[in-house]
Amino acid sequence: MQIGLLYSRIRKDEKLLLSELRERGHDVTKIDVRKHQFGLDGTTAPVDDLDVVVDRCLATSRSLYATRFIESYGVPVVNSPETAEICADKAKNSLALAEAGVPTPETKVAFTKESAMEAIEAFGYPCVLKPVVGSWGRLMAKIDSRSAAEAILEHKATLGHYEHKVFYVQEFVEKPGRDIRVLATDGEPVAAMTRSSEHWLTNAAKGGETEAFELDDEALELVEKASDAVGGGLLGVDLMETGDSYTVHEVNHTVEFKALNGTTDVDVPATVVDWLESKAAEKTAAEALA
Amino acid sequence: MTEAECAECGATLDLADDLETGEIIDCGTCGAELEVIDVNPPVLDRAPELEEDWGE
């Protein structure tokens, strides 16, 4: 197949994908989004003959716009711009999960310090304040007291980008020192792992220790529902254990999988490429019918 | 194994054969983050600074 890879930085994840694609003899076109323009009637990027484009942009803003333009040229893109738009924004992500009946932490969004403080006091301490856009656990705050809340809200309102004036307040979930990352393709799990840390943030990017995890029926169902809720695609679904059940706190759309590949027995890039091949086959079948 | 010069300190870096344009590597001498601009021959430049919306 002819596959395009949108990027601006090649991480180990992209190297794994590129290596698997080339080993299978696919024709890969790397598209550095920094070097191209995307116009209303076309782009300088060589996308015309591609069966599918995979978005691996590291920057959320680039991911959102580049996928939207590429879809407008009639080229299939994964993940879709619709999925990217929901997953890129924690508030939209939370709404989509709740609307789909997926258990997710109680969340409130406020637009002023005063209103955010009311939300924080209503949750009680500790609670969590997150940026609506961001990754790798950056700028996440666990708030233990009113004085800490006042300081953080003041800093965010004064120093931050306008997005930091959208205050996303969430209940603190007492998880057992770990959360669960599931990589899924259209709701079908590829592999899962736990990320453990003594710190409340357990992200692999923060140095959380990883271990393979076997999903039970309930988790399998939640992963499928969470994937559907955001429009499907190649996704990282994050769950937390809540005693006898789970809560899904977010779904990631340009998911990293190098840690998962090293933690589980699953050949993650091979499974992802299997899925990409099925996406390209769907396009071929649709063209045959047209 | 190929070689290239660090754009920050000028040290010579040994690079893996499966180098990709866009890949980020660290200079073992000065610690700078470098981006692979070209692979044949390898050319390195200072990597872009981390931005707020980067991540998965």
From TrEMBL, chain B:
Q: Which domain of life is it from?
A: Archaea
Q: What is this protein called?
A: Acetylornithine deacetylase
Organism annotation? Haloprofundus marisrubri
Record-linked InterPro entries: LysW
Starting at the broadest rank, the lineage of the source organism is: Archaea, Methanobacteriati, Methanobacteriota, Stenosarchaea group, Halobacteria
